[in-house]
Amino acid sequence: QVQLVESGGGLAQAGGSLRLSCAASGRTFSSYGMGWFRQAPGKEREFVAAIKWSGTSLAYADSVQGRFFISRDNAKNTVYLQMANLELEDTAVYYCAKDRIAYRSDPTQRVQDYDYWGQGTRVTVSS
Questions:
Q1: Among 35, 57, 33, which Cα is nearest to 48's?
Q2: 61 vs 8, 82, 127, CA distance in Å?
Q3: Rounded to whole angstroms, how far apart are CA atoms 41 and 73?
Q4: Do residues 81 and 97 touch, judged by C-beta distance below 8 A?
Q5: By CB distance 3.0 to 4.6 Å, which of 5, 63, 70, 107 could disulfide with 49?
Q6: Interacting residues of 102 by C-beta distance below 8 A, sequence separation 6+
Q7: What's the sign of the alpha-carbon dihedral 78, 19, 125, 111?
Q8: Strand partners for 6
Q9: Which long-range contacts does 47-54 make (Cβ < 8 Å, 24+ apart)?
Q10: How far apart are CA 101 and CA 119, in angstroms?
């Protein structure tokens, strides 16, 4: 069983920054890719960013490319999402998730490829 706990959400102004963290339990964190997804009110959950198990390959949604940065610290069992130049459209609940396949060759953007999810952390961007 894996537990994922997100933190770092809150209220930010447009143009501002936030850093989300996701702490994972278990001893196999470093074997799995991790992803960040978000869900805005009335919308489906969407991919934001993903990172390979080794940290050597990253993937981003077009909407956040160049503004968000995903990273991981395998020694701390933690994955981060640094968000900069926030836009009103970034308002959502953000979830981290663990890839269901160990040592996947590339980070995946598909919701169905993730088997464990955190409870989410809310990000609200105001003008």
A1: 35
A2: 20, 14, 23
A3: 31
A4: no
A5: 70
A6: 28, 31, 32, 53
A7: negative
A8: 22
A9: 47/109, 47/110, 47/111, 48/81, 48/94, 49/81, 50/99, 50/107, 50/108, 50/109, 51/79, 51/107, 52/104, 52/105, 52/106, 52/107, 53/99, 53/102, 53/103, 53/104
A10: 21
Residues 6+ positions from 52 with CB-CB distance below 8 Å: 33, 58, 104, 105, 106, 107
Is residue 3's pLDDT more than 90? yes
- Cβ contact 12:86 at 8 Å: yes
Confidence of residue 61 (pLDDT cuts 50, 70, 90): very high
Question: Structure tokens of 4?
Answer: 């994922």
pLDDT at 27: 85
